[in-house]
Amino acid sequence: DAGVIQSPRHEVTEMGQEVTLRCKPISGHDYLFWYRQTMMRGLELLIYFNNNVPIDDSGMPEDRFSAKMPNASFSTLKIQPSEPRDSAVYFCASSEGTGGRFGGYTFGSGTRLTVV
Amino acid sequence: SQQGEEDPQALSIQEGENATMNCSYKTSINNLQWYRQNSGRGLVHLILIRSNEREKHSGRLRVTLDTSKKSSSLLITASRAADTASYFCATDAGSNYQLIWGAGTKLIIKP
After folding, report:
1. Which helix (H) or strand (E) holds A88?
2. Which of residues 58 through 97 in chain A touch B, CB cutoff 8 A?
3. Of A56, A105, A110, which is closest to B45 when you measure between CB atoms?
4. Are the C-beta atoms of B32 and B78 separated by less than 8 Å?
5. Residue A109, CB half-sphere, CA atoms under 13 Å: how many?
6. Which site from A5, B1, B104, B107 is most exposed, i.e. has the minimal number of CB atoms within 10 Å?
7. Rg of chain A's alpha carbons, rounded to an integer?
8. Are B34 and B22 in contact, with CB atoms under 8 Å apart?
């Protein structure tokens, strides 16, 4: 398996534009997570899915953020409209079983988002 | 939310020395995991230790867990420049909870 694949690796956009981040989890993993990492706030869980169903989106900062998982092999995180404070590295991770208890989480390489 | 607290926040040692990082947590757990993050990359799972285990080894890594003190330590022996990274602990606190992350220890190995 090629691991968790995220695209794009870097995204620079203007304030007010829509941004879509993409993730392909590891085949067979039933949990998918979206995280945001900044120097100030560290690693923050935004939302996670179990078997393609959103379970907890309490970490989503506001209504400008939305996430979907239409099937087991694809998820998107959308920000509309984007703001400079959304600048961060966004990670997607997947795991088998809750809490990563069967081998931990596998993270993608992240998308570095810069909103100017 | 962050339950784990790593100590120290930053550590700088000479290549070849051993590096020890500590993690404390607040609630009972099913397991505790350690991850490494190289600059500009995603986190990589290193080792998982279950609540009924006290010590675990993987190559140059040794992890201990003391559930009575709610703490864990990660020892990297014979450090190498390639070990320079941030190290995070994360705890699995129950069936409906996902991993709770610490803030990380930044480790620098000087050649």
Report:
1. strand A88-95
2. 91, 93
3. A105
4. no
5. 9
6. B1
7. 13
8. no
> B94 CB near a chain A CB, below 8 Å?
yes
Sign of the C-alpha dihedral computed for residues A16, A17, A18 and A21 taken in this order: negative
A100 contact partners, CB below 8 Å, separation of at least 6: A31, B33, B45, B48, B90, B92, B99
Distance CA A66, CA A88 (A): 16
- Calpha distance B4→B45 (Å, rounded): 16
Residue A84 sits at φ, ψ, to 5 deg, of -55, -35
Show the beta-strand stretches assigned E in B1-111.
5-7, 10-14, 19-24, 31-37, 43-50, 55-58, 61-66, 71-76, 85-92, 100-101, 105-110
Our CA-based measurement puts residue A29 at a distance from the nearest CA of chain B, in whole angstroms, of 14
* B107 token code pair: 């480790």
Nearest-angstrom CA–CA distance, B23 and B35: 12
Q: Angle at CA B47, nearest 5°, toward B66 and A75? A: 120
pLDDT, tens digit, 9 for 90 and up, residues B36-94: 999 989 999 999 999 999 999 999 999 999 999 999 999 999 999 999 999 999 998 87
Q: Residue A86 and residue A75: Cα distance in Å, rounded?
A: 19
